[in-house]
Design brief:
The protein contains 24 helices and 11 strands. The chain has a 5-stranded mixed sheet with strand order 9-8-7-10-11. A 4-stranded antiparallel sheet has the order 1-2-3-4, with no helix packed on it. A two-stranded antiparallel sheet has the order 5-6.
Length: about 700
């Protein structure tokens, strides 16, 4: 017994009873709870009393044989409940494969890693890890042994993690045997500072579509086409993927067009690949079309949006709105203001406002009388226009959502969406109040899509539900005459077979290189100093036969593979939303060994430069308050690491790309010393640029 503490520790498989103040042996302990408790003797009233001490929190409980273990089990469940929100691999009480409780040993390295990952995912400042409240909460609720880390340590771990994961992504790209499609954007602030974002899209060996942000860097002026092309190519060289690039998706800025015309020469693309290289962001074009129409209709729409802004401008006005809803026995609802340059917010506002037409009219009457306001009451024609706008924009809204996906091919859906929009123009043309707006929107539509984009036509053909048949039918639906349709389909097939020949030659070259590599490697391995070269020709005959088959039958077998795919009828599916085009090609790639390679690359092409709400213009969280003191390199590390972590769990938020654009504008505005402003940007036409 320790005189200082009055405690005697005992092995877990022994027991004592307080007899003559001396310990005595007891039956062996068999309950699983004793993995988390140890028996100790405590002096109470001059006698030794047997206690059970929790090895996790050092709490003492009755520990004599007659006390049982139920109270100890209840205590363990309290620990389990407290740990339920921590990863199963890191809880204090864990279950193994058999369901048995296992001990947890605190590991500071693991704790540091998890905290750093949390900071990255939650976009928190590094100093958060030094917060007394955060550290205390972890210690009190989850792990008493937790030791905090400093902000500088957190930053160092972030940069170390970025270096490691960047190497891992390098290795992934090196092993990748498919093409990579890029999306690129650059933002400009009023201080004439620019920031470049570059994302890589690819389909892996399991036929899963992936996206990775590979660059988020400050770039200096001027932002000419040649300068942007150089920046992009330098990034591709640093990632060693310059020889794997298939397409580049951009918005409609004139300097982007110039960059897209320069890059193919840097990448040494052949003539067929150059025809498909430059892809325009479909969602950006949709936004331009809608904005042109809303400008024409703004006198009527503004009457409704002004009412909503009024009710949201003060608590008193909001209370009047609530009363109006109650007077009409309608559920009180908060209508969000529309946001300039985000047409989807106007669309969503109108959907709700139309349902609350009567309360809105009553609100205008009440507010004008009680507060002497001068709000205009929308007339019946204004409401008719609002209904037409909400109905017409539905097809744009759904198309934008479809074309903004991340984990499914969007390139094969573009032509069907354009056909739907074209049909909407025809359907709404009979409404005279909508005529002027439709004229403006149709003019913008025809500027970019009077003819279906070739690259998206090829991608559509690679969808077994559509093929060439769907292209012909959709051209007919939009009023193209049969002679023109036949001519367009012939041109598409000609290009498709040229594209097929490129892949055929690539496959033949690959097989030939493998055969030569096998000969050279075999010869080298068999050679020892002073000996003659003895070639080892194992499997050489099969490799040569494979190459010979490709070579001798190139005009029949390999070409007929594409023709065979085109000649088969399109497949019918019960639910288009449940059909996986990538899953179909994965299942049938052995039947179409070369065509499947074409399909994989064509289906990789993203239809937009940024997905989901990002195409509705900038918005979202502001990082300037949290990240203003960080260097551009650190911000790039944080943005890339979060994107890569979300990619690993297939939880990437497409809106993040556009949010970062807005966030970096605020950061640059608050730090004029970050990058000196210099020359002006190259002029861009029709205000179709990406500006702050």
């Amino acid at each position: 017994m320790d005189n200082a503490s009055g405690t005697v520790n005992e092995p877990a498989n022994d027991s004592t009873t307080p007899s003559n103040n001396k310990p005595a042996s007891a039956p062996r302990l068999t309950s699983k709870v004793w993995s988390y408790f140890k028996r100790v003797n405590k002096i109470e009233n001059g006698k030794l009393v047997l206690k059970a001490e929790c090895v996790i929190c050092n709490t003492l409980f009755a520990g004599s044989p007659r006390s049982g273990t139920s109270h100890l089990s209840r205590h363990l469940k309290e620990h389990e409940a407290a740990q339920a929100r921590i990863s199963p691999g890191h809880i204090l009480l864990n279950h193994d494969v058999a369901g048995n409780l296992t001990n947890f040993a605190y590991d500071h390295a693991i704790a540091c890693k998890e905290v750093v990952d949390f900071i990255i995912r939650a976009e928190l400042p590094f100093k958060f890890v030094e917060s007394h409240d955060f550290t205390g909460m972890i210690q009190r609720v989850f792990c008493p042994q937790y030791r905090g880390i400093s902000a500088s340590t957190c930053k160092g771990e972030v940069m170390k993690k970025f270096g490691k994961e960047k190497c891992d992504l390098h290795a992934l790209f090196e092993k990748l045997d498919s093409k990579i499609c890029l999306t690129y954007d650059v933002w400009s602030s009023q201080q004439k500072m620019g920031y470049m974002s570059l994302s890589a899209h690819f389909i892996d060996k399991d036929w899963c579509l992936n996206k990775r942000v590979i660059c988020f860097k400050m770039i200096e002026y001027p932002h000419t086409g040649e300068s942007l092309a150089t920046h992009i190519f330098d990034e591709l060289l640093s990632w060693r993927i310059h020889n794997k690039i298939f397409t580049l998706s951009l918005d409609n800025a004139s300097n982007n067009d110039s960059a897209a015309s320069i890059l193919p020469s840097f990448l040494l693309l052949d003539s067929v690949q150059q025809k498909l290289f430059h892809v325009r962001c479909c969602c950006h074009i949709l936004n331009l079309i809608v904005q042109d129409g809303l400008k024409v209709l703004s006198p009527s729409i503004d009457k409704i949006t002004d009412i909503v802004r009024s009710m949201n401008s003060s608590n008193k006005r909001h209370e009047i709105w609530v009363k109006c809803c109650t007077d009409f026995n309608m559920q009180q609802i908060n209508i969000d203001n529309d946001v300039p340059h985000r047409w989807n917010s106007t669309y969503e506002l109108l959907l709700v406002a139309i349902q609350y037409k009567a309360p809105l009219h009553w609100y205008v009457k009440e507010i004008n009388e009680s507060l002497s306001c001068n709000l205009q009451v929308p007339n019946e024609e204004d409401w008719k226009i609002a209904q037409l706008v909400s109905g017409f924009l539905q097809v744009f809204y759904s198309s934008t959502k479809i074309l903004s996906g991340v984990y499914y091919p969007t390139s094969s859906r573009v032509i069907s969406c354009l056909t739907d929009i074209h049909a909407s123009f025809a359907a709404y043309s009979e409404f005279s109040v909508f005529k002027d707006a439709l004229t403006e929107m149709k003019a913008k539509f025809d500027k970019y899509w009077e003819e279906f984009p070739t690259v998206f036509c090829l991608a559509t053909i690679m969808d077994p539900r559509f093929k060439v048949f769907a292209i012909g039918e959709w051209l007919n639906m939009i009023g193209i005459d049969q002679l023109t349709i036949d001519s367009k389909l012939l041109a598409l097939k000609t290009l498709l077979f040229q594209f097929f020949d490129v892949y055929k030659r690539s496959v033949m070259s690959y097989v030939g290189q493998n055969v030569q590599s096998a000969i050279v490697t075999s010869s080298t391995l068999s050679q020892t100093p002073g000996s003659i070269v003895v070639p080892i020709m194992q499997n050489f005959s099969m490799q040569c036969l494979k190459r010979a088959k490709l070579s001798s039958s190139s005009s029949s077998t390999t070409t007929s593979e594409l023709q065979f795919y085109l000649d088969l009828p399109t497949i019918e599916v019960a639910d288009d939303n449940q059909f996986s085009v990538l899953g179909w090609w994965k299942k049938n790639q052995s039947l179409y060994p070369i065509v499947s390679l074409m399909a994989r690359d064509l289906l990789t092409i993203p239809a937009s430069t940024v997905a989901s709400e990002s195409c509705f213009s900038a918005g979202g969280k502001v990082l300037s308050e949290k990240w203003t003191s960080l260097s551009p390199n650190t911000i790039e590390a944080l943005i890339c690491l979060k994107d890569w972590a979300l990619a690993n769990s297939r939880m990437q938020d497409p809106a993040q790309d556009e949010q970062h654009a807005e966030e970096l504008i605020n950061i640059r505005a608050s730090r004029s010393d970050w990058m000196a402003a210099s020359e002006t940007v190259e002029s861009e036409s029709e205000n179709e640029t990406i500006e702050s």
